[in-house]
Amino acid sequence: MHNPQLNAHGELTHLLSIEGLPRDVLMQILDTASSFIEVSDRDVKKVPLLRGKSVFNVFFENSTRTRTTFEIAAKRLSADVINLDVTRSSTAKGETLLDTVDNLIAMHADMFVVRHAASGAPHLIADHLRRVGRNDVHVVNAGDGRHAHPTQGLLDMYTIRHYKQDFANLVVAVVGDILHSRVARSDINALTTLGAAEVRAVGPQTLLPTAIERMGVRVYHDLREGLRDCDVVIMLRLQNERMNGALLPSAREYFRCYGLTPAMLALARPDAIVMHPGPMNRGVEIDSDVADGPQAVILPQVTFGIAVRMAVMGIVAGN
Amino acid sequence: MNRQNLHIQNARLIDPASGLDSRLDLFVGDGRIAAIGQPPAGFAADRRIDAAGLIVCPGLVDLSTRLGGIEPELGAAVSGGVTSLACPPDSKPPLDEPGLVERLVRRSETLGLARVYPIGALTHGLAGQRLAEMNGLARAGCIGFSQANQPIDTQLLLRAMQYAATFGYAVRLRPQDQFLAGDGVAHDGEVASRLGLTGVPVSAETVATATALLLASETGVRLHLSRLSSAAGVALVREAKRSGMQVTCDISIHHLHLSEIDIGYFDSNARFDPPLRAASDRDALRAAAQEGLAALCSDHTPVDADGKQLPFAEALPGATGLELLLPLTLLWAEQASLPLAEALARVTCDPAAILGIDAGSLAIGSPADVCVFDPTEPWRVSAESLRSQGKNTPYLGYEMSGRVRMTLVGGGIVFEA
Question: What is the mean pLDDT of residues B202-207?
């Protein structure tokens, strides 16, 4: 099948999903991100890679944090950044997604950073660009529905590589609401592509997607079993609307069964790291003692995220 | 309708109803099949049609066609060899008033293209609140009643079946439990999980199928289950038939060929209701069609580009199907190594029997609804080659074999290419 993310030379032209990307493309992004880390430590935090280019942050769904990190990343590459909060403008007037995109193309956008509540929306935009012959315009997925959040997946991989060097012998547990999590899907795809020894999906049946094992993970319903001898623990945010509905009886019961406490974390390897894509629900999926403890690398994730997003934008714009 | 005497020569004549498949001439007179092989006494042909290399079979009978624009879609029907079609009631407005049904019937009769058989709404406005005027609708021309894709609670369903059984009306249901289906948009399986799409579990179909079968056997209503999508769904129907129940079912031609894999990267043309399921389900549907458990239908659903150029979950479900029904049936026959007469039965005499209409056969004296096609002529599916206003199909760009060359309805030539 035609891979919509790669151009005819097999180079990354859009970043829509981790799925379907070869290992060397992922490694290229991580290596490029490494070289950008020091830019952020300089007095002048800028490189001229995207000078004269217009990056449109098109967020059909609110997310100040993700949008801000993309904005910082684009600015450090010297791009002009335009933020569009589409939730409040065009779509409210009935404009379709592709109408909005066509309008922005007419404003000479070079890159779209897209967040949308519907899975597959960035694919639709990339497909539209191909059909109208605009191979010079790039799409970076900043999170679509439950499908993918590839830059988060990549920054998670960057973080893991930073602390663990190699993926080959790692046991990684992804814990929580995997059903609704685009982060989980991107992490799982990245970890299996990069050759992690074992990827575990840990959660109650109501929060695990059907046939998740076909993505190359081992399923655990018991948190203790799932954490035993892990090198990396990735906790997922439990959205408020899931807590008191048909999927879970209560936040309290969820924390009792799946909350990461120091006692639970003690089952993992002593040098295990704890990650979280943020924002955290302290006392729901993670205990403050863990979130603020020595094994947590949650704030470094954020810092690495900027370098990774710089790398992604730099690479797609160059292809 | 022009009713000339026609002599179709040199054709390969296939009549699935009788199992006939041989090189014989067909004689049409007075709107009916006049004779096969030798002309009837005193027959004088107004026109001789040389059908060398072509196949002549009964016009196709489609169990589910959404019309949208009546004229273009009926034109699409006859260009696809479809001469009779049943319309589900979920048009806008729904077919819940005798006047609407009469107008549809009159309009289609005036056009003189394919024959239209409306299916009336089971409940008023398809809202699942109160029964529609089934008797009045039947008098206006409805040949059965259905809730289309709209939900209905089990108590009202029981009442609807009791009421329909009182008058001997058939009830058609697309079995799907609304609670289990939720807001799902794809088969609850590997692909939906991977793409982050909300799933419709197979249990949504099996629970509703089991419910419908139980209530139908309690009420004695004639039940037809539309567009089964799963292995477990057809297994329930097989079981019910084995235990002696009078129940029929159909499968959409798309579900016979495609599976969840065909969603690819969110192809909204592969969004169907019910969803395309696992490859193992597709194989079970093929087996059910092959053994004659299920008929095939086009599930023709024209959707304009605006309805499809949306993220997968927001796109409207369905595909254009009238012009693909024959080629996809031929493709299935070839892939499954089925005799053509056997495969064509699923789109001619079988659905005619389900609808209880005099169609789908070349028996002498039956209405001369005939399809003449070239089984090998290739054509490419494109917005230009499709006559339907719906250009929405996962087969866009594909090459098909099997091109209709002539269609007769009641002995009149309604399509010729």
Answer: 98
CA distance B211 to B178: 13
CB contact under 8 A, A120 and B311: yes
Residue among A232, A298, A238 nearest A268 (CA): A232
User: Closest Cα partner for B233 from B270, B271, B207, B199?
Assistant: B207
B73–chain A nearest CA distance, Å:
27
The β-bridge partners of B27 are B7, B35
Distance CA B250, CA B82 (A): 17
Question: Which residues have a Cβ under 8 Å from the Cβ of B405 and sit 6 or more positions away?
Answer: B51, B54, B372, B373, B374, B416, B417
Q: What distance in Å separates residue A246's CA from the closest CA in chain B?
A: 12
Residues of B taking part in catalysis? 299
CB contact under 8 A, B311 and A128: no
Is B266–A120 a contact, with Cβ atoms under 8 angstroms apart? Answer: yes
**Residues of B contacting chain A (CB within 8 angstroms):** 188-190, 192-199, 201, 264-266, 268, 306, 309-314
For the segment B2-36, what is each residue's pLDDT rounded down to a tens digit?
578 999 999 999 999 999 999 999 999 999 999 99
Maximum Cα interatomic distance, chain A, rounded to a whole number of Å: 56
User: Residues B295-354: pLDDT tens digits?
Assistant: 999 999 999 999 999 999 999 999 999 999 999 999 999 999 999 999 999 999 999 999
Q: Confidence class of residue A89 from pLDDT cuts 50, 70 and 90?
A: low
- ipTM confidence: 0.94
Bridge partners of B401, per DSSP, are B378
Q: Exposed, middle or buried: residue B20 (CB in 10 Å: 0-12, 13-18, 19+)? A: middle
Sequence-ordered list of residues with C-beta below 8 angstroms from that of B79, at least 6 positions apart, any chain: B323, B387, B404, B407, B415, B417
Kindly report, residue by residue over B112-149, the tens digit of the pLDDT: 999 999 999 999 999 999 999 999 999 999 999 999 99
pLDDT recorded at residue B88: 97
Instruction: Please tell me which residue of chain B has the smallest CA distance to A180.
Output: B196
| Nearest-angstrom CA–CA distance, B366 and B352 | 12
